[in-house]
Amino acid sequence: MQILDGAMGTELGLRGVSLEGSAWSAQAIVDAPTTLSEVHTAYAEAGATVHTANTFRTQPALGPSWRGMLVDAVAIAKRAVPGGHVVLGSLAPVEDCYRPDLSPGARARDKHRDVAQALVDAGCDGVLCETFAHADEAIAAVDAALEAGAPVWLSLTAGPKADLLTPGDFTTIGKRAAAAGAARLLVNCIAATRTAPYVAALASLGVPIGAYANAGDESEGIGWSAASPDGVSRYADLAAQWIREGAEVVGGCCGTGPAHVRALADRFGSGVGGVLGAGA
Fold first, then answer.
1. Listed residue (132, 128, 177) closest to 276, CA to CA
2. What is the DSSP string of the chain?
3. N vs C: which end of the chain shows fewer Cβ within 10 Å?
């Protein structure tokens, strides 16, 4: 079992870093690199051995500085975690991840290729195409990352309320992604209480899978600033369902933090590094 880290933006916000503006969590690369490094280290100390560099927003739309920020984000992550741990580069949709209606679809391939190549050149161990809810753009991102020569994981989302895609949609997209060459398929940023059917949908494909969920509404007490020991334990209980479905990688998305990752590592164990899968 591999343990992925938890949310970056949530944790930066809780540590007082501003998430205002289009750069969102990426602004920490410039304004709060020490805090960013501390978050990566906190996840490693909690038991994560697979880490995601803070590159979710380092895209060409950010302006001329995007590439330098991406390189810095990867360097910060690699310095902050122990040798032998895996550092993935995050590659996100070019538009709002919860607005697949805005997606350019397959036309996003060139932009994803630029980001994927930059992540590989910066030294990432693989590319995590994450929080995709548009089928054609998801496949374009996988193709672009494979062209860059990296092992590629694809993570799909139906949004926190699970209203953007159905489990059947995940099966359809997942089948296409596996055929394209994605080494692992994951579920992310769906409320933890609604994630299991989507994990089961990917498990039906017989390929390596994983999951890292959104903590859900703050009133549920699973995460965000309302996280409690009981809430953290409940998150691990939900993750046990994903593992029973076949997930071999588990971690956290929005609203989770080091406490959630520690609960996962304590309960399910954590191997250092691990197989990412073949590249192109």
1. 128
2. -EEB---SHHHHHHTT----STTGGGHHHHH-HHHHHHHHHHHHHHT--EEE-S-TT-SGGG-TTHHHHHHHHHHHHHHHS-TT-EEEEEE--SS-TT-GGG--GGGGHHHHHHHHHHHHHTT-SEEEEEEE--HHHHHHHHHHHHHTT--EEEEE--TTTT-S--HHHHHHHHHHHHHHT-SEEEEEEEEGGG-HHHHHHHHTTTS-EEEEEE---GGG-SSGGG--HHHHHHHHHHHHHHHHHTEEEEEE-TT--HHHHHHHHHHH---SS-------
3. C
